[in-house]
Amino acid sequence: MFYVKTIQNFLLLVIFTFTLSACDIEDDLHPSSNDQSTQNIIADDFTVKDIYNNDFVLYDHLTIGANTSPADVVVLYFTMYCPICTADTAHIFNTVMPQFSTRGTVAYVLVDYLSGSVSTAYDYAVANGVSNPDFFTVLADIDNIVENQFNGAMGITVVIASDGTVLMHEEYNSNNLFDTLDQYLP
Amino acid sequence: MKPNKKAIARHFRAVLITGTALYLIPVDYISPVQAASCCGGGSASSLVLPKFSKAMIDISMDYEHYTGSWDGNGSWSAEPRDLNQYRINMGYAHRLTPNWQASVTLPYVFNQNEYSSGERNTNGIGDGTASIWYEAFDKISCVWDVNSWEDLMPAIYMGGTLTVPTGISPYDDIVKDADITGRGVYRLDASILIDKTIYPWNMSIGASYGKHLERPVNRELGVYVPPRHKQLGDRFNSNISFGYTYFTDEMESITGTVAYAVLREDETKIDGAIDTTSGFRKESVSATLAWATENRDWVYKLTYSHTPSRDSWGEDFATTDVITVGVSHVLR
User: Fold this and answer.
1) In which order are the strands placed within the sheet that holds A166-171?
2) Which of A82, B42, B120, B153 could disulfide-link B126, Cβ–Cβ 3.0 to 4.6 Å?
3) B190 lies within 8 A of chain A by CB
């Protein structure tokens, strides 16, 4: 009788576990191994105010545009100043920037996609120590122009070559960012 | 008339409980929540069934408010925005044999975030858990007096918990980061809980070690990325708590418990390479007030969990305050 009860209880456990597992796991845990990433497309131009109320025009930094402020690479990083964002930003500042400081010109651009106004974006940039334009350009993406183009979210990083080609477009991955810059910069 | 110790002891033998193990193990102990709705989802707690009880149903609600965050150097800064997560947690525990029990939990998560640019509110099922526990003791270990070495024997629970990615994860088909309600990976935790009650005092210590399973990923935060394998870092969680129980004339018990917990998660691996910007650590304190009815078949709980808003109490993680109200019904 004891064994019958034990088996019955273990069957119940299996049912519980199965029920939980079958509880609509919406996530595809085995996604396609085909590369569906949007890399190697040409980025559209955009104009967005920075935190000092200047217009930042993407194509001004690219050879396919006005190229008035030429850069070999533009790195966009979407920030909401969450712990992940501040860790990534610190990594860019402390590790990536020094590593590539002598290899061409890189424009490091933080995209504040949540602050809703230039003044609020400025306040956040100051509070988080990233307001110095010698290191970062901080955009106040009030109308979600950049966010919508790149499906921006916390930590999304976009690397754009001087000809407008998107070289990298993914959640911040320090190894991939290093590899991408290393391959492309002179 | 004030109940005396022997009367209470007799009563306790009658209702066959094991002291504080009756209550829900704190969220931060067994199934720590990867905090902020901005960086992870919700997870319910594991349940531990009282000795000799057949089953338990538990329902609780959490309100979690984000107060700030630590950077990689442990420097804390305040969160000026209004970021909140609400969770409704449902749990069921079932006794399998006199020394084995199993439980499942499932949360429903509401993210409610207010930014300068507007509100972003989403909701969905969070990550569920399935646990199995072995009780390395055969009789109730709560005592009133220590008369022999045997009376010092604690209740020892050893268990395993599988976290199931039932929530909406960053690797899912999401539109915004605020949609996230889960972490998107299976995790196996091995846990131990040592609990000793010498009435009216109680002390428990616990630890768990969790390993995330690697999974393939082809999109993150709504953006398709080159396919890769991702494995979140191992988790270590430890907890210590002290409690005091007061008995009313009607033999109802009111237990106050304070706890301290440390949670650490190692760095993530992407295709085997360490992501140096990942990983975190946090310390938290909590206070719980639990009221149990005379037969200990209904337990009402109120918990306040606080992550100190100070430097060096954590790294690369959000600080939050969590208020939990819940009720457990024990079936004997």
Assistant:
1) A137-140, A106-112, A73-79, A156-161, A166-171
2) B42
3) no
CB of B170 within 8 Å of a chain A CB? The answer is yes
- The pLDDT tens digits of the residues spanning A12-55 come to 666 565 555 555 555 677 787 777 776 678 999 999 999 999 99
Residues B224-280 have pLDDT tens digits of 888 999 999 999 999 999 999 999 999 899 999 999 999 999 999 999 999 988 899
| ipTM score for this prediction | 0.74
Q: Is the dihedral of CA A57, A58, A61, A62 positive or negative?
A: negative
Q: What are phi and psi of A174, to 5 degrees?
A: -60, -40
The verdict on A149 touching B (C-beta cutoff 8 Å) is no
Low-confidence ranges of chain A (pLDDT < 50): none
Q: Where are the beta strands (DSSP E) in B128-222?
A: 128-135, 155-164, 187-198, 201-212, 215-220
Task: Report the 10 Å Cβ neighbour count for B234.
Answer: 15
Enumerate residues 60 to 99 of chain A having a beta carbon within 8 A of any beta carbon in chain B.
Answer: 80, 82-84, 86-88, 90-91, 95
pLDDT digits 0-9 by tens, B130-183: 999 999 988 888 888 899 998 899 999 999 999 999 998 989 888 777 788 999
**In sequence order, what are the residues at sequence separation of 6 or more whose Cβ sits closer than 8 angstroms to the Cβ of residue B124?**
A26, B108, B109, B167, B168, B179, B181
Look at residue A6 in the predicted model and tell me its pLDDT: 61
Select from A20, A80, A91 the Cβ nearest to the Cβ of B164.
A20
Which CATH superfamily does the domain covering A47-184 fall into?
A: Glutaredoxin (3.40.30.10)
**CB of A171 within 8 Å of any CB in chain B?**
yes
Domain parsing of chain A, residue ranges: 47-184
* CB pairs A-B closer than 8 Å: 179
CA-wise closest residue to B321 among B274, B269, B271, B285: B285
Shortest Cα–Cα distance, B258 to chain A (Å): 27
